[in-house]
Amino acid sequence: MTIRKCVTLASMLFISPATFATNLLDIVHTAEVKNSRFAALRVERAIANQAPDIARASLLPQIVLTASTSTANLQQDPIKFAPGVPAVGGDTAYDSTEWGGRVVQPLFNWGAFQQYQVAKIQRSYEQALADAKAQDLYFNIADAYFNVLRAQDSLSIAKSRLASLAKRLEEAQAKYASGFVSQVDILEQESQRDAAASQVLTAEDQLNSQRETLSALVGEPTTELATLRTDIPVLLPTPNSVDAWGKLAIEQNPNLLASLLGIEQSKASKSALKAEYLPQINFFASYSDRNLKGSDSAAVALNSGTTDVVGVEARWEIFSGGATHARVKRAGLQTNLALQNHESDAKIIENQARALFQTAKTDAYRIKAKQRSLSSSELAYRAIEAGYSAGTHSIVDVMSSETKVNTARVELATARYDYVMNCFRLYQIIGLLNESAITRINGWLVAN
To answer: How far apart are CA 160 and CA 163, in angstroms?
Structure first.
């Protein structure tokens, strides 16, 4: 191996950590493990899964075992049946041991069956709410991630401007010593340099704040982040129809899906309440074994033994003071309320989806416009800088042109980040902000 190859390999080893910069997908996976909100969502889903099992129990056999032991004192008036026959009764004490069991199997319980249907809808409802919360978490993490990148770009531009102004000030001071520039030019450049230094401090503070926000969402401090490529695919949303996006939002938005399930749950609850007008019929079987000891009384002895009972029992509540009627009426009103709220929410979300579609389209055009603006500003800056060297432009012209270049850079970066985040918002409002969507946008990132 040649010395040059050794040096090249060593350089790659020292540079390699940057190629492992944490990207958005890594951040999301870490947050799913470390963020307690994701853990809470997993618990909420597990709790929701228990509701149908609890409700189904009312339709399955109920088995009860009982056992008891006691000491009793029996006081009876003596009864003499015939002369010469010992009297029955009197005072006696005995020990009682008893055990038994009872099995009940519902044969007809329409209310319990409807409550089971309610529980299944409730599970789906809570799962839909959990999906909506998960998408909120994914969006917040993505927003915090790209806010860090925004802050990094702002700091980089601010530092670049400060370095440029400091270098230009040194050149102007040298020219001032030779009498080629006035003191006014020096003061103007010092003012610009100091303002740029203040902007760097502000940008550093903003970057630290955004990093703390991201770390709190992830659940641990974040390392070097992969940055947004300069050549991200800036495409118009597909389908390219505002009506189509509004329809998708109505059909797939998890909050609206939860709202529809809430309506179905309310209807099923009303049916369960109506079932109180119907009888309940159960099959039952019981067995008991009673053993009484410690007494010679015939009355006590006759109460010992086993009992087997098998039968069908019915319970029908004919009138409960009007409570059932009132509860059914209230359930109907609650269903109507849920329906009205759903229609209102659907209109709001549809309008949001339509507005986001238009904004995303505008972002795509805006990025191209900002790219052209930056190119023009850079060309103008180079021309004015050449003019300054030739003596046809003043330092004020140069600094003004340089400010326009930096402004164009900031505006282009802002447009690119706005486009990315509005893509996330579109995914979220149609219920598709999941790992697949995050993976797609994660492909727009590159390690520094």
So the answer is: 5
CATH 1.20.1600.10 given to domain 19-59+109-279+322-446? yes
Where residue 408 falls (left for φ over 0; alpha for ψ -120 to 50; beta otherwise) is alpha
Question: Topology of domain 61-107+281-315, per CATH?
Answer: Outer membrane efflux proteins (OEP) (2.20.200)
Question: pLDDT per residue over 146-200, tens digit each?
Answer: 999 999 999 998 998 888 888 878 877 877 777 666 777 778 778 888 888 999 9
- Please report, for the chain, the start and end positions of each structural domain, with discontinuous segments joined by +: 19-59+109-279+322-446, 61-107+281-315
pLDDT digits (tens, 9 = 90+) for 104-128: 999 999 999 999 999 999 999 999 9
